[in-house]
């Protein structure tokens, strides 16, 4: 298993998919270290240790390369969430980028509107996202939401729920600014420390829970997902976008 994982790391490395390659190198190294512990043949141990040393050196080089890309504003990480995959709660996707200096967040998503719908719980999802921001470690003071109006009779409910979220956030010293656009299409989230995350489905990439008392209803890490792609960028000019 360790050899196969490292082989995959090398393939990703050669394809310049450095973030994925780094993860595979790290997993492969851990597996190979376990093999070394279980091996009594000293010659094999020596060969394994040599290989592990080579892979560790390459992993460190990739780490430095990624850090440089971040500093230069050229960083790009892509995460592919497969159909029915679990383990992709908001903390998993965003916590890495919510550093202590984050004080302002922009959310652009046209579908923060329906509560009761066949497959969407978008307003609840937005609330869960806000809860994550309030928990920190960032010190968010302002959240800007740009979305579209719900259609028909759902608009009054949408406005009522958003107002309730706004009032609740104010109890934690957070201001929620809400704007609407009839032409908004793209979905993206930006932090004022320079991180920008684009999710194909926006915040609404979770599947409808099987019931109000089913596993995954409360813990989004356990909730199956729809297939989607997450792109993470870093830029020193976020506010100009």
Explain how this protein is built.
The protein is α/β, with parallel strands linked by helices and 241 residues long. It has 2 domains: 1-72, Up-down Bundle (Methane Monooxygenase Hydroxylase, Chain G, domain 1); 76-234, MITD, C-terminal phospholipase D-like domain (Endonuclease, Chain A). It is built from 6 helices and 7 strands; from the N terminus they run αααβαβαβαββββ. Strands 1-7-6-5-2-3-4 form a 7-stranded mixed sheet. β3 (142-147), α6 and β4 (175-180) form a beta-alpha-beta unit. α2 runs antiparallel to α3 and α5 (122-135) runs parallel beside α6. The longest helix is centred in the first third of the chain and has 31 residues, at 42-72. The chain is elongated. The termini are far apart. Mean pLDDT is 87; it is low at 237-241.
Mean pLDDT: 87
SSE order in H/E notation?
HHHEHEHEHEEEE
Distance between the termini: 44 Å
What is the count of structural domains?
2
The proportion of residues forming helix, as a percent range, comes to: 40-55%
**What's the total number of strands?**
7
What would CATH call the class of the largest domain?
A: Alpha Beta
Shape: elongated
Q: Number of helical runs?
A: 6
Percent range for β-strand residues:
15-25%
Largest sheet: 7 strands, mixed
Topology-level CATH name of the largest domain: Endonuclease, Chain A
